[in-house]
Amino acid sequence: MRLQFTDFLQEELTISEIQMAMENGEITSKELVMYYLHRIAKYDQDGPKINSILEINPDAIFIAEALDYERETKGVRGPLHGIPVVLKDNIETNDSMHTSAGTLALENHISSHDAFLVEKLREAGAVILGKANMTELSNGMSNTMWAGYSARGGQVLNPYGDAELFVGGSSSGSAVAVAANFTVLAVGTETDASILSPAITNSVVGIKPTVGLISRTGIIPFTYSQDTAGPMARTVTDASILLGALVGVDKYDAATCKSEGRLKQNYSIYLEANGLKGAKIGVFKNASQKFYLSDEYDEKLFMNALHTLCEEGAIVIEDIEIPSFHRDWNRAVLMSELKHSLENYLVKLPSHLPVHSITELIQFNKRLADKALKYGQNKLEEMVLLPNTLRHSEYLNAKLDDLYFSQIGIDGALKKYDLDAILFPSYIGSTICAKAGYPSIAIPAGYKESGRPFGITFASTAYKCVKDFDISN
Predict the structure, then answer these.
(1) Is-catalytic flag, 194?
(2) CATH class of 7-270
């Protein structure tokens, strides 16, 4: 018998709308989870086969039922009580789901503990609905691997009609799951553009927070310097609510210690309807000519976004300069830290798993080359040759240069033009913000004539970003 759902459930509901409906008895968390499972079956795994969901939590319905009973008997824990959330497949959970980062080598890896951020979500009453597909090893496998592809999960598709549309960086499954209404919320991770890019290309909101705002404990790593998890949602308000649930000081993650005293439990309170009035926003347009001629850009939509900012009372300063934006960033930091962090992660895995080093991972993939190496593994083969310590001069100098030039570039521009935030078309500012460890937020800005989504990114200095004004309109 086919499940029937009310017209109410067909809407792309916000957190507040869902909570109100639950309080009014119009819907339960169990029914909401069942609805999303129905949509996943119909559109993600069948029909257009969008392929954004890698695993379903077999306990999701039970968890939702328990939270429904808790609502009736004790009240709600907060705004995420009973709300489904999908996690990127590099985030560990201590349940029946696997954590593989899209690799075949780790397809049987079940973690013995929750990632710190997963503990926070469970405490907030969220329902972990499942794991999202992703670019394998967060794009640490091959230079030619197509975004959104993993050997374990296959290719994630953009839900906007054309299977050839770019699906965005490694958190593509998380973004698509939200865009296609397979979940209310999702969590992605970013080293450089892995949240911002899929948010832009799938018309959702993605927040890449200040590094250290969210714990990295329990996440299959890429770098020490740049890695962070972040929320993905259909509205800025929902993304900010999820952000508040994810943040926290973790004694096992040194990066979060610098955030102590700077964390907020509710970031949505800063989203005021008239918050753009008087906000000073600098527009950076001095990217490469190649970008402006590519399908990543749309002049009309970008100018419409600027017009909207002005209409809402923002002070828009066009054509600002960020001198360090165009510098040639050295790959030594990314490759050296990926080698070191991934080796450390693999060596601690349980003995029954087939790989415990990058060398073993390379050999495992070669043995299953027809399944594991559609795009090769040249990145793995390059990094395995690097030193296993982070003390060589090229790495140290590159790391210091990254921090200095990225932070002085952003902070210098904010100070020179007296800005609250910097606006970038699409996600072209992702690298300089990633190197600095500074926050960015990507929001939808319309659709190109081809149907491809277009978006814009706001960025600022550490712990600030869009804190002081609302851009949800």
Answers:
(1) yes
(2) alpha beta
